[in-house]
Amino acid sequence: MRQADLLKIAGTYGDPVYVYDAEKIISQYNRLTKAFSGVKHLQLNYAAKALSNINILKLMNTLGSGLDTVSIQEVQLGLMAGFKPESIIYTPNGVSLEEIEEAAKLGVRINIDNLSILEQFGGKHPDIPVCIRINPHVMAGGNSNISVGHIDSKFGISIHQIPHLLRIVELTKMNINGIHMHTGSDILDIDVFLYASEILFETAKNFKNLDFIDFGSGFKVPYKKGDIETNVEELGKKLSTRFNEFCAEYGKELTLAFEPGKFLVSEAGYFLTKVNVVKQTTSTVFASVDSGFNHLIRPMLYGASHQIENISNPKGRERYYSVVGYICETDTFASNRRINEISEGDILSFKNAGAYCFTMASNYNSRFRPPEVLWYKNEAHLIRERENFDNLIQNQVDVKNLFDAKKEKATVK
């Protein structure tokens, strides 16, 4: 998107505001499908948790994507957006048997990641096909919080528990139709991913009625100029070849599935904020903006580095700034970052704001969550209104007379 378009959106809808470029989402989806064009059956299931606005889900549906969900609410959003139940896969973690049964009643595909629930669900519903999430015990991902395939992870059934798993399947007569793994986000080493895939192939040999193998996702996207990213073209070529070999060995054409989230929407997103104050201290120049980690928590939570541009002064000379928010505790977006000279009132654009930004936003400090705008075919569309005070208190219950001031009795002296 052009900076002029972003400035116009900020002027129209106010700031802070999230903006998503639909054309970038479409190009990322096409890039991934092209990378794996060597397999006969490919299924991309967009990970709704990355950005779950119903308009984004509808866009994914028109592209032919399925939907990866982690909660019953995301399942319901997917159905509302027009996804067919069979194109939705439900992959929760640590939820109750009742929630899984609720999803099963809606007709979506079920993915189970622990032996306890697998045994309970199989005992009650042996005729409902189930995918199994395996933990390959492979460390992958750019941050410990988003590396989910290692031995200490809460996710998946350990490969060392396969004998126990097979006993449950045999005793319950369950129908296992898929095998799944997800090693983590920001995968840098393709060979590590391919190594984990071999573990998944070996596990798949234990099940004779598979329809698909789901390799998760976690492809890294660039966050700044010159940043490294997952070479999906190389991965596509190598994994497609190996997948086709496995299908030949297995004796059946299986579907190769992925669940990309960040890869599809991260680079499509921009978060626009206004500079409230430029504050010079003895050692630092702070640019304080009208937002905080209540709207974009990734730098504070994951140490994520979002490129920041001053779109109000794109040709100004660069100076060093620490960009901070208005939350009443340490709230730093960037430290000592080279940015074109900033003045109070300038609009700063945070890149890579499409994934895990609005979906992780909160009302901390009783601040309102910003609006969302979709840029599609050179036109801005408001897809979520800015919150207001009524939204903030709409579910609070003001119990009448509970804390009314007590009237003191008059005393006669």
From TrEMBL:
Q: Which NCBIfam families match?
A: lysA
GO BP term, example = lysine biosynthetic process via diaminopimelate
Return the Pfam families for the record.
Orn_Arg_deC_N, Orn_DAP_Arg_deC
Instruction: Give the matching InterPro entries.
Output: Ala_racemase/Decarboxylase_C, DAP_deCOOHase_LysA, De-COase2_C, De-COase2_N, De-COase2_pyr-phos_BS, Orn/DAP/Arg_de-COase, PLP-binding_barrel
Q: Which residues carry this modification: N6-(pyridoxal phosphate)lysine?
A: K49
**Domain spans labelled Orn/DAP/Arg decarboxylase 2 C-terminal:** 18-354
- Protein's organism: Aggregatimonas sangjinii
Gene Ontology terms for molecular function: diaminopimelate decarboxylase activity; pyridoxal phosphate binding
Per the entry, which co-factors are needed? pyridoxal 5'-phosphate
Q: What does this protein do?
A: Specifically catalyzes the decarboxylation of meso-diaminopimelate (meso-DAP) to L-lysine.
> What is the name of the protein in this document?
Diaminopimelate decarboxylase
The UniProt entry's sequence similarity note says:
Belongs to the Orn/Lys/Arg decarboxylase class-II family. LysA subfamily.
Residue numbers annotated as active site: C328 (proton donor)
- EC no. given is 4.1.1.20
The family database entries (Gene3D superfamilies) matched by this protein are listed as: Alanine racemase (3.20.20.10), Lyase, Ornithine Decarboxylase, Chain A, domain 1 (2.40.37.10)
Orn/DAP/Arg decarboxylase 2 N-terminal domain boundaries: 23-266
Q: Which reaction does it catalyse?
A: meso-2,6-diaminopimelate + H(+) = L-lysine + CO2
Q: Which UniProt keywords apply?
A: Amino-acid biosynthesis, Decarboxylase, Lyase, Lysine biosynthesis, Pyridoxal phosphate
Q: How does it assemble?
A: Homodimer.
Pathway as given in its UniProt record: Amino-acid biosynthesis; L-lysine biosynthesis via DAP pathway; L-lysine from DL-2,6-diaminopimelate: step 1/1
- Which annotated residues bind pyridoxal 5'-phosphate? G218, Y356
Q: Where does substrate bind?
A: R298, Y302, E329, Y356
